[in-house]
Specification:
10% strand; 50% helix; 6 helices
Length: 172
């Protein structure tokens, strides 16, 4: 799987424990790409992005930054910010559970205990919402620089909803 960001890049946006291995965190980045980002952009564009992520136009889309539009300067966090928040939402919801031969277990110690599920669920929805807000800025950047992204096509209702916002579908 081609990942658009690393754990280190996600750590620029959110606090992630140093003790969490890069390999372990990468599964959450992969899930964020496959289940969150992919449904927000058109399929052809998504695969073009993965294939060409090092090209200048896609690299800026990923890292974000400043750009000029209609004599104004705008800034955006890029897909790195979007994926950092989506992956963190998944990480903090699932990370306390460890698969063992006796089923899923939560580690507790005399000095610590897992954050309750309700609090983790609230954080999950909050981070997903924040990721969607960052995605709105990414879409504006793409649409204002559409000549750089010829495979971006929202006529098939990818990206923003009819209300102009993004929605995250969650199955409970």
């Amino acid at each position: 799987m081609i990942l658009l960001i690393t754990k280190a890049q996600a750590m620029a946006f959110l606090q992630i424990a140093v003790g969490v291995s890069d390999t372990e965190y990468e599964k959450f980045i992969e899930q964020a790409q496959d289940f969150d980002l992919k449904e927000l952009v058109c399929e052809e564009f998504y695969h073009d992005l993965l294939k060409n992520k090092t090209q200048e136009n896609y690299a800026k889309l990923i890292t974000g930054g400043e750009y000029e539009y209609n004599e104004n300067t705008y800034s955006f966090k890029g897909l790195a910010g979007v994926l950092a928040f989506f992956s963190y939402a998944r990480f903090q919801l699932e990370s306390p559970a460890v698969s063992t031969s006796f089923g899923m277990q939560f580690k507790t110690t005399p000095n610590s205990q897992p954050v309750p599920l309700e609090e983790r669920r609230n954080t999950y929805y909050q981070k997903k919402s924040q990721a969607n807000k960052l995605m709105e800025d990414v879409v504006k950047y793409i649409e204002r620089n559409i000549e750089l992204f010829p495979k971006y096509n929202c006529q098939n209702k990818c990206g923003s909803s009819s209300t102009g916002g993004f929605s995250t579908k969650v199955i409970q």
